[in-house]
Amino acid sequence: MAKKFAELEARMAPEARAQAQALYLQHLKELPLHELRKAQELSQEALAKKLHINQAAVSKMERRTDMYISTLRNYIQAMGGELEIIATFADGQVKIENFAE
Amino acid sequence: MAKKFAELEARMAPEARAQAQALYLQHLKELPLHELRKAQELSQEALAKKLHINQAAVSKMERRTDMYISTLRNYIQAMGGELEIIATFADGQVKIENFAE
């Protein structure tokens, strides 16, 4: 099935592909960090243990509206995920690679 | 064309959709910030002007391997783009909405 998707994408004109990509990102579920943690069935205590910090620090982190990219990456990785930084333009998306580990 | 993509996606089983999504993100072009700026045909001077900082500050920013999400968002927006923060898990992706403007 993944192969079919790649084939379909390869047959699309660049503008259509950019449209499809934008559409895909628009349709992604949006969650705040604490909801994402709950979806992974992790408590603040469990996540704090993985991050070697205390529960209050996790609580504080989840209420922030700005933080270092490395801090966010550590939080996501502690849940078993990977962080991706995407820049969306009218003609498509690119991944920003400055912050790769 | 965008409609066709949405229809195809809707017909896919959840696991296949997660696979297709992961595949899509894997296939995105990866660029460091300075290459992205050049692709937008902007000089450090031009971007500095938009950000109300000097050229040296832009140069320094482009060499950083960590920064605040708000700083990165300002840089991307000055180029005419939008920043998206995605967490990728084995079973799919979610957008992190804590840092929405």
UniProtKB/TrEMBL annotation, chains A, B:
<protein>
    <submittedName>
        <fullName>Helix-turn-helix domain-containing protein</fullName>
    </submittedName>
</protein>
<dbReference type="InterPro" id="IPR001387">
    <property type="entry name" value="Cro/C1-type_HTH"/>
</dbReference>
<feature type="domain" description="HTH cro/C1-type">
    <location>
        <begin position="33"/>
        <end position="86"/>
    </location>
</feature>
<dbReference type="InterPro" id="IPR039554">
    <property type="entry name" value="HigA2-like_HTH"/>
</dbReference>
<dbReference type="Pfam" id="PF13744">
    <property type="entry name" value="HTH_37"/>
</dbReference>
<dbReference type="InterPro" id="IPR010982">
    <property type="entry name" value="Lambda_DNA-bd_dom_sf"/>
</dbReference>
